[in-house]
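Design job #97: recover the sequence.
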Protein backbone atom coordinates (compact mmCIF):
# COMPACT_ATOMS: atom_id res chain seq x y z
CA UNK A 1 0.00 0.00 0.00
CA UNK A 2 1.27 3.49 -0.81
CA UNK A 3 1.14 5.72 2.22
CA UNK A 4 1.75 9.04 0.52
CA UNK A 5 4.32 11.33 -0.41
CA UNK A 6 11.83 17.42 26.49
CA UNK A 7 12.33 13.70 25.70
CA UNK A 8 8.82 13.12 26.90
CA UNK A 9 6.30 15.49 25.41
CA UNK A 10 2.53 15.52 25.87
CA UNK A 11 0.44 15.04 22.75
CA UNK A 12 -1.68 17.98 21.57
CA UNK A 13 -4.96 18.52 23.39
CA UNK A 14 -7.86 16.77 21.71
CA UNK A 15 -5.61 14.33 19.83
CA UNK A 16 -7.76 11.30 19.02
CA UNK A 17 -4.90 8.81 18.75
CA UNK A 18 -5.14 5.48 20.59
CA UNK A 19 -3.56 5.42 24.02
CA UNK A 20 -0.77 2.99 23.04
CA UNK A 21 2.58 4.47 24.01
CA UNK A 22 4.48 5.49 20.86
CA UNK A 23 8.20 6.01 21.47
CA UNK A 24 10.72 7.46 19.04
CA UNK A 25 14.03 5.61 19.34
CA UNK A 26 17.29 6.75 17.74
CA UNK A 27 20.15 4.24 17.83
CA UNK A 28 23.50 6.01 18.24
CA UNK A 29 26.41 3.77 19.13
CA UNK A 30 29.71 5.43 19.97
CA UNK A 31 31.83 3.17 17.80
CA UNK A 32 31.64 4.00 14.09
CA UNK A 33 34.11 2.39 11.71
CA UNK A 34 33.48 4.88 8.90
CA UNK A 35 33.49 8.22 10.79
CA UNK A 36 34.51 8.42 14.49
CA UNK A 37 31.57 9.59 16.63
CA UNK A 38 29.65 10.24 13.43
CA UNK A 39 26.34 10.63 15.26
CA UNK A 40 27.43 13.87 16.95
CA UNK A 41 29.72 15.24 14.26
CA UNK A 42 28.57 18.71 13.24
CA UNK A 43 26.51 18.83 10.06
CA UNK A 44 25.70 22.39 8.94
CA UNK A 45 26.49 23.52 12.48
CA UNK A 46 24.25 21.00 14.26
CA UNK A 47 25.25 17.59 15.67
CA UNK A 48 24.04 14.96 13.19
CA UNK A 49 21.69 13.35 15.69
CA UNK A 50 20.20 16.77 16.49
CA UNK A 51 18.45 17.01 13.12
CA UNK A 52 16.28 13.93 13.66
CA UNK A 53 15.70 14.67 17.35
CA UNK A 54 14.39 18.12 16.46
CA UNK A 55 12.00 16.60 13.90
CA UNK A 56 10.80 13.89 16.32
CA UNK A 57 10.17 16.28 19.19
CA UNK A 58 8.40 18.86 17.03
CA UNK A 59 6.18 16.24 15.40
CA UNK A 60 4.17 16.07 18.64
CA UNK A 61 3.05 12.47 18.06
CA UNK A 62 5.47 10.66 20.36
CA UNK A 63 4.81 10.00 24.03
CA UNK A 64 8.60 9.83 24.54
CA UNK A 65 11.75 10.39 22.48
CA UNK A 66 14.81 8.29 23.25
CA UNK A 67 18.42 7.86 22.19
CA UNK A 68 20.00 4.46 22.73
CA UNK A 69 23.75 4.84 23.19
CA UNK A 70 26.81 3.52 24.96
CA UNK A 71 28.78 6.78 24.81
CA UNK A 72 28.90 9.65 27.32
CA UNK A 73 29.30 12.43 24.73
CA UNK A 74 26.36 11.18 22.67
CA UNK A 75 24.27 11.02 25.86
CA UNK A 76 25.21 14.63 26.62
CA UNK A 77 24.16 15.86 23.15
CA UNK A 78 20.93 13.85 23.24
CA UNK A 79 19.89 15.44 26.53
CA UNK A 80 20.79 18.90 25.23
CA UNK A 81 18.22 18.39 22.47
CA UNK A 82 15.58 17.20 24.93
CA UNK A 83 15.68 13.43 24.46
CA UNK A 84 15.78 10.76 27.13
CA UNK A 85 18.69 8.35 27.10
CA UNK A 86 18.70 4.56 27.21
CA UNK A 87 22.18 3.30 28.13
CA UNK A 88 22.53 0.18 26.06
CA UNK A 89 24.45 -2.82 27.34
CA UNK A 90 27.86 -3.90 25.98
CA UNK A 91 26.16 -6.99 24.51
CA UNK A 92 24.26 -4.88 21.96
CA UNK A 93 27.04 -2.32 21.41
CA UNK A 94 29.29 -4.47 19.27
CA UNK A 95 30.10 -4.04 15.58
CA UNK A 96 28.07 -7.19 14.95
CA UNK A 97 25.03 -6.06 16.95
CA UNK A 98 21.83 -5.58 14.96
CA UNK A 99 19.25 -2.83 15.25
CA UNK A 100 16.62 -5.41 16.13
CA UNK A 101 18.67 -6.71 19.08
CA UNK A 102 19.13 -3.18 20.41
CA UNK A 103 15.44 -2.32 20.04
CA UNK A 104 14.39 -5.53 21.80
CA UNK A 105 16.68 -4.69 24.72
CA UNK A 106 15.07 -1.24 24.89
CA UNK A 107 11.58 -2.80 25.01
CA UNK A 108 12.65 -5.25 27.72
CA UNK A 109 13.54 -2.30 29.95
CA UNK A 110 10.61 -0.07 29.01
CA UNK A 111 7.42 -2.05 29.41
CA UNK A 112 5.25 1.06 28.95
CA UNK A 113 6.16 1.28 25.24
CA UNK A 114 3.70 -0.30 22.78
CA UNK A 115 5.04 1.02 19.46
CA UNK A 116 8.60 1.90 18.47
CA UNK A 117 9.48 4.42 15.80
CA UNK A 118 13.10 3.57 15.04
CA UNK A 119 14.55 6.71 13.41
CA UNK A 120 17.98 6.59 11.81
CA UNK A 121 20.40 9.25 13.06
CA UNK A 122 21.92 9.45 9.59
CA UNK A 123 18.77 10.91 7.95
CA UNK A 124 19.15 14.66 8.63
CA UNK A 125 16.48 15.81 6.14
CA UNK A 126 13.63 14.11 7.97
CA UNK A 127 10.64 16.40 8.62
CA UNK A 128 7.96 16.25 11.36
CA UNK A 129 5.24 16.06 8.70
CA UNK A 130 6.56 12.66 7.60
CA UNK A 131 6.52 11.32 11.15
CA UNK A 132 2.99 12.61 11.77
CA UNK A 133 1.64 10.76 8.71
CA UNK A 134 3.42 7.55 9.68
CA UNK A 135 2.05 7.74 13.23
CA UNK A 136 -1.43 8.00 11.73
CA UNK A 137 -0.88 4.84 9.69
CA UNK A 138 0.10 2.92 12.81
CA UNK A 139 -2.30 4.42 15.35
CA UNK A 140 -5.36 5.27 13.30
CA UNK A 141 -5.28 2.93 10.31
CA UNK A 142 -4.12 -0.14 12.21
CA UNK A 143 -0.89 -1.05 10.43
CA UNK A 144 1.57 -3.19 12.39
CA UNK A 145 4.66 -1.82 10.67
CA UNK A 146 5.53 1.09 8.40
CA UNK A 147 8.90 1.80 6.79
CA UNK A 148 10.28 4.57 4.58
CA UNK A 149 11.08 4.25 0.88
CA UNK A 150 12.21 6.52 -1.93
CA UNK A 151 11.49 6.30 -5.65
CA UNK A 152 14.48 5.72 -7.92
CA UNK A 153 14.70 5.81 -11.70
CA UNK A 154 17.69 3.51 -12.15
CA UNK A 155 18.09 0.62 -14.56
CA UNK A 156 19.57 -2.50 -12.97
CA UNK A 157 21.80 -5.15 -14.54
CA UNK A 158 22.91 -8.53 -13.22
CA UNK A 159 26.39 -8.69 -11.75
CA UNK A 160 29.09 -10.69 -13.51
CA UNK A 161 31.90 -11.68 -11.20
CA UNK A 162 35.48 -11.79 -12.36
CA UNK A 163 36.27 -15.08 -14.06
CA UNK A 164 32.65 -16.00 -14.82
CA UNK A 165 32.03 -16.87 -18.47
CA UNK A 166 28.66 -15.19 -18.94
CA UNK A 167 27.09 -11.91 -19.98
CA UNK A 168 25.23 -9.40 -17.90
CA UNK A 169 21.43 -9.36 -18.21
CA UNK A 170 18.95 -6.50 -17.80
CA UNK A 171 16.92 -6.74 -14.60
CA UNK A 172 14.21 -4.12 -14.97
CA UNK A 173 14.31 -2.93 -18.57
CA UNK A 174 14.19 -3.98 -22.18
CA UNK A 175 17.32 -2.53 -23.84
CA UNK A 176 15.52 -2.54 -27.20
CA UNK A 177 12.82 -0.28 -25.77
CA UNK A 178 14.30 1.89 -23.06
CA UNK A 179 11.87 4.04 -21.15
CA UNK A 180 12.13 7.77 -21.00
CA UNK A 181 12.25 8.93 -17.39
CA UNK A 182 8.88 10.66 -17.64
CA UNK A 183 7.28 7.47 -19.03
CA UNK A 184 8.57 5.18 -16.27
CA UNK A 185 7.32 5.39 -12.69
CA UNK A 186 10.58 3.98 -11.36
CA UNK A 187 10.97 1.59 -8.43
CA UNK A 188 10.70 1.88 -4.66
CA UNK A 189 13.76 1.32 -2.48
CA UNK A 190 14.10 1.36 1.29
CA UNK A 191 16.00 4.49 2.29
CA UNK A 192 16.49 3.55 5.95
CA UNK A 193 15.11 6.79 7.42
CA UNK A 194 12.73 5.03 9.80
CA UNK A 195 11.05 1.75 10.73
CA UNK A 196 7.91 1.82 12.89
CA UNK A 197 6.66 -1.43 14.41
CA UNK A 198 4.39 -2.62 17.21
CA UNK A 199 5.78 -4.41 20.25
CA UNK A 200 4.28 -7.83 19.48
CA UNK A 201 5.99 -7.84 16.08
CA UNK A 202 9.40 -6.81 17.43
CA UNK A 203 9.21 -9.44 20.18
CA UNK A 204 8.74 -12.06 17.47
CA UNK A 205 11.94 -10.87 15.78
CA UNK A 206 10.58 -8.60 13.04
CA UNK A 207 10.72 -4.90 12.22
CA UNK A 208 8.64 -5.44 9.10
CA UNK A 209 5.68 -7.77 9.15
CA UNK A 210 2.01 -8.19 9.92
CA UNK A 211 -0.11 -5.59 8.19
CA UNK A 212 2.60 -3.58 6.44
CA UNK A 213 2.72 -0.22 4.67
CA UNK A 214 5.52 1.78 3.15
CA UNK A 215 5.79 5.55 3.33
CA UNK A 216 7.26 7.21 0.26
CA UNK A 217 9.55 10.12 1.13
CA UNK A 218 10.46 12.92 -1.22
CA UNK A 219 13.76 12.27 -2.99
CA UNK A 220 15.30 15.52 -1.73
CA UNK A 221 14.58 14.47 1.87
CA UNK A 222 16.18 11.07 1.39
CA UNK A 223 19.73 11.56 2.62
CA UNK A 224 21.82 8.86 4.29
CA UNK A 225 25.33 9.53 5.57
CA UNK A 226 27.63 6.53 5.75
CA UNK A 227 31.07 7.77 4.72
CA UNK A 228 33.06 11.01 4.93
CA UNK A 229 32.60 11.79 1.24
CA UNK A 230 28.85 12.12 1.88
CA UNK A 231 29.36 14.94 4.38
CA UNK A 232 29.78 18.05 2.17
CA UNK A 233 26.98 16.84 -0.12
CA UNK A 234 24.71 16.23 2.88
CA UNK A 235 25.47 19.71 4.29
CA UNK A 236 24.30 21.36 1.10
CA UNK A 237 21.19 19.14 1.01
CA UNK A 238 20.35 19.93 4.64
CA UNK A 239 20.69 23.65 4.10
CA UNK A 240 18.32 23.40 1.14
CA UNK A 241 15.81 20.82 2.38
CA UNK A 242 16.39 20.27 6.12
CA UNK A 243 13.98 21.05 8.94
CA UNK A 244 15.00 24.12 10.96
CA UNK A 245 12.17 24.31 13.49
CA UNK A 246 8.51 25.19 13.83
CA UNK A 247 8.92 28.87 13.12
CA UNK A 248 9.50 29.78 9.47
CA UNK A 249 12.90 31.24 8.67
CA UNK A 250 13.03 34.99 8.08
CA UNK A 251 15.67 37.15 6.51
CA UNK A 252 18.36 38.23 8.94
CA UNK A 253 18.78 42.01 8.98
CA UNK A 254 21.01 42.42 12.04
CA UNK A 255 23.98 40.43 13.32
CA UNK A 256 25.22 41.19 16.82
CA UNK A 257 28.59 39.70 17.67
CA UNK A 258 30.39 39.43 20.97
CA UNK A 259 33.85 40.97 20.66
CA UNK A 260 35.80 38.90 23.18
CA UNK A 261 35.99 35.26 22.13
CA UNK A 262 34.24 35.75 18.77
CA UNK A 263 35.85 38.66 16.93
CA UNK A 264 38.98 37.96 18.97
CA UNK A 265 40.28 34.75 20.48
CA UNK A 266 39.62 36.14 23.96
CA UNK A 267 43.27 36.63 24.78
CA UNK A 268 44.57 40.02 25.93
CA UNK A 269 48.27 40.74 25.56
CA UNK A 270 49.80 43.34 27.92
CA UNK A 271 52.97 45.19 26.94
CA UNK A 272 55.64 46.34 29.35
CA UNK A 273 54.14 49.83 29.38
CA UNK A 274 50.78 48.26 30.37
CA UNK A 275 49.06 48.69 27.01
CA UNK A 276 46.57 46.02 25.95
CA UNK A 277 46.85 44.26 22.62
CA UNK A 278 44.56 41.75 20.91
CA UNK A 279 44.69 39.77 17.67
CA UNK A 280 41.99 39.12 15.11
CA UNK A 281 41.61 37.18 11.88
CA UNK A 282 41.36 39.09 8.61
CA UNK A 283 38.83 36.52 7.38
CA UNK A 284 36.40 37.82 10.01
CA UNK A 285 36.83 41.37 8.77
CA UNK A 286 35.99 40.13 5.27
CA UNK A 287 32.93 38.36 6.70
CA UNK A 288 31.71 41.58 8.33
CA UNK A 289 32.21 43.45 5.06
CA UNK A 290 30.27 40.79 3.10
CA UNK A 291 27.38 41.00 5.55
CA UNK A 292 27.21 44.76 5.15
CA UNK A 293 27.23 44.46 1.37
CA UNK A 294 24.24 42.12 1.64
CA UNK A 295 22.36 44.80 3.57
CA UNK A 296 22.81 43.17 7.00
CA UNK A 297 23.77 45.48 9.85
CA UNK A 298 26.64 44.28 12.05
CA UNK A 299 26.93 45.48 15.63
CA UNK A 300 29.44 44.53 18.30
CA UNK A 301 29.12 44.10 22.05
CA UNK A 302 31.51 43.58 24.94
CA UNK A 303 31.38 43.44 28.73
CA UNK A 304 34.64 45.37 29.03
CA UNK A 305 35.83 48.75 27.80
CA UNK A 306 37.59 48.03 24.51
CA UNK A 307 36.65 51.26 22.73
CA UNK A 308 40.29 52.14 21.92
CA UNK A 309 40.82 48.74 20.33
CA UNK A 310 37.66 49.06 18.22
CA UNK A 311 38.69 52.51 17.11
CA UNK A 312 42.04 51.18 15.97
CA UNK A 313 40.41 48.36 14.00
CA UNK A 314 38.22 50.84 12.04
CA UNK A 315 35.41 48.36 11.42
CA UNK A 316 32.73 51.01 11.01
CA UNK A 317 30.28 49.08 13.22
CA UNK A 318 28.04 50.36 15.99
CA UNK A 319 29.40 48.95 19.25
CA UNK A 320 28.42 48.82 22.91
CA UNK A 321 31.16 48.36 25.49
CA UNK A 322 30.87 47.96 29.26
CA UNK A 323 27.61 46.11 28.61
CA UNK A 324 26.44 44.67 31.92
CA UNK A 325 23.20 43.31 30.41
CA UNK A 326 23.74 42.10 26.85
CA UNK A 327 20.12 40.99 26.39
CA UNK A 328 18.84 44.48 27.24
CA UNK A 329 21.26 46.03 24.75
CA UNK A 330 20.13 43.58 22.08
CA UNK A 331 16.47 44.28 22.88
CA UNK A 332 17.01 48.04 22.64
CA UNK A 333 18.80 47.70 19.29
CA UNK A 334 16.09 45.39 17.95
CA UNK A 335 13.31 47.82 18.86
CA UNK A 336 15.19 50.86 17.56
CA UNK A 337 15.59 49.25 14.14
CA UNK A 338 12.07 47.83 14.19
CA UNK A 339 12.94 44.14 13.82
CA UNK A 340 11.38 40.94 15.08
CA UNK A 341 13.58 38.48 16.94
CA UNK A 342 13.49 36.24 13.86
CA UNK A 343 15.36 38.92 11.93
CA UNK A 344 18.21 39.05 14.45
CA UNK A 345 21.31 36.83 14.45
CA UNK A 346 23.67 36.57 17.40
CA UNK A 347 27.17 35.14 17.71
CA UNK A 348 28.38 34.64 21.30
CA UNK A 349 30.58 32.37 23.32
CA UNK A 350 30.05 32.88 27.08
CA UNK A 351 27.39 32.37 29.74
CA UNK A 352 26.56 36.06 29.46
CA UNK A 353 25.51 35.42 25.84
CA UNK A 354 23.10 32.56 26.55
CA UNK A 355 19.88 34.59 26.76
CA UNK A 356 20.78 36.48 23.59
CA UNK A 357 21.44 33.18 21.82
CA UNK A 358 18.09 31.80 22.96
CA UNK A 359 16.11 34.83 21.80
CA UNK A 360 17.77 35.48 18.45
CA UNK A 361 16.17 33.98 15.36
CA UNK A 362 19.56 32.66 14.26
CA UNK A 363 22.29 31.93 16.78
CA UNK A 364 25.83 30.65 16.62
CA UNK A 365 28.94 30.09 18.70
CA UNK A 366 32.61 29.45 17.87
CA UNK A 367 33.90 25.89 18.24
CA UNK A 368 35.63 26.76 21.53
CA UNK A 369 32.61 28.41 23.17
CA UNK A 370 31.66 27.30 26.68
CA UNK A 371 29.27 24.35 27.05
CA UNK A 372 26.19 26.35 28.09
CA UNK A 373 26.59 28.67 25.11
CA UNK A 374 26.91 25.70 22.75
CA UNK A 375 23.75 24.21 24.20
CA UNK A 376 21.80 27.43 23.55
CA UNK A 377 23.08 27.94 19.99
CA UNK A 378 21.51 26.77 16.77
CA UNK A 379 24.83 26.63 14.94
CA UNK A 380 28.27 25.60 16.18
CA UNK A 381 31.12 26.85 14.01
CA UNK A 382 34.04 24.66 13.06
CA UNK A 383 36.34 27.65 13.63
CA UNK A 384 37.43 28.96 17.01
CA UNK A 385 36.81 32.51 18.15
CA UNK A 386 39.19 34.99 16.52
CA UNK A 387 40.05 32.38 13.88
CA UNK A 388 37.39 32.81 11.19
CA UNK A 389 34.21 32.07 13.17
CA UNK A 390 32.48 35.29 12.03
CA UNK A 391 33.26 34.58 8.38
CA UNK A 392 31.96 31.04 8.77
CA UNK A 393 28.77 32.21 10.51
CA UNK A 394 28.29 34.80 7.76
CA UNK A 395 28.41 32.04 5.13
CA UNK A 396 25.84 30.11 7.17
CA UNK A 397 23.56 33.16 7.21
CA UNK A 398 23.92 33.56 3.44
CA UNK A 399 22.99 29.92 2.83
CA UNK A 400 19.89 30.21 5.01
CA UNK A 401 18.92 33.43 3.22
CA UNK A 402 19.01 31.45 -0.01
CA UNK A 403 16.69 28.94 1.62
CA UNK A 404 14.29 31.72 2.63
CA UNK A 405 14.26 33.19 -0.87
CA UNK A 406 13.82 29.73 -2.42
CA UNK A 407 10.80 29.07 -0.19
CA UNK A 408 9.32 32.44 -1.09
CA UNK A 409 9.69 31.78 -4.79
CA UNK A 410 7.98 28.39 -4.42
CA UNK A 411 5.08 30.11 -2.65
CA UNK A 412 4.95 32.94 -5.18
CA UNK A 413 6.03 35.56 -2.64
CA UNK A 414 8.36 38.40 -3.63
CA UNK A 415 11.95 38.21 -2.46
CA UNK A 416 13.48 41.05 -0.53
CA UNK A 417 13.87 44.29 -2.48
CA UNK A 418 17.48 45.32 -2.54
CA UNK A 419 18.45 48.82 -3.65
CA UNK A 420 22.14 49.24 -4.39
CA UNK A 421 23.29 52.70 -5.45
CA UNK A 422 26.34 52.76 -7.66
CA UNK A 423 27.64 55.38 -10.11
CA UNK A 424 24.43 57.40 -9.85
CA UNK A 425 22.21 54.41 -10.68
CA UNK A 426 19.86 52.42 -8.50
CA UNK A 427 19.83 48.67 -9.20
CA UNK A 428 16.65 47.03 -7.96
CA UNK A 429 16.87 43.26 -7.68
CA UNK A 430 13.64 41.33 -8.24
CA UNK A 431 11.42 44.41 -8.29
CA UNK A 432 8.16 43.46 -6.64
CA UNK A 433 7.27 46.68 -4.82
CA UNK A 434 6.62 49.17 -7.61
CA UNK A 435 6.14 51.94 -5.04
CA UNK A 436 9.87 51.82 -4.40
CA UNK A 437 10.49 52.98 -7.96
CA UNK A 438 8.63 56.22 -7.30
CA UNK A 439 11.35 57.18 -4.83
CA UNK A 440 13.88 57.39 -7.68
CA UNK A 441 14.04 59.44 -10.89
CA UNK A 442 13.11 57.28 -13.93
CA UNK A 443 16.50 57.99 -15.47
CA UNK A 444 18.11 56.10 -12.62
CA UNK A 445 16.11 52.86 -13.04
CA UNK A 446 18.01 49.73 -13.90
CA UNK A 447 15.82 46.67 -13.41
CA UNK A 448 17.38 43.28 -12.74
CA UNK A 449 15.20 40.23 -12.10
CA UNK A 450 16.93 37.48 -10.12
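Job complete. Output follows.
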Amino acid sequence: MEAGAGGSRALPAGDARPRGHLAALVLARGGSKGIPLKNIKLLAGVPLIGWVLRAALDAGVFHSVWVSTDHDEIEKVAKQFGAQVHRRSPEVSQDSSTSLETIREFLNRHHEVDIVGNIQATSPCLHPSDLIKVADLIQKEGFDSVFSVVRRHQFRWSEVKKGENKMTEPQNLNPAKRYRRQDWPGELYENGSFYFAKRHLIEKGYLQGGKMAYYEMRAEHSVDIDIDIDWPIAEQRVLSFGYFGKEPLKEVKLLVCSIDGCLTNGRIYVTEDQKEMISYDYRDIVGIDLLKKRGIQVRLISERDCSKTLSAMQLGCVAKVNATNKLQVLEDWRKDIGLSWKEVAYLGNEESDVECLKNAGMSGVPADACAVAQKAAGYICKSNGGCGAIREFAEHIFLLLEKVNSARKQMGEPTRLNVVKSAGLAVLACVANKAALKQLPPANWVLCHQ
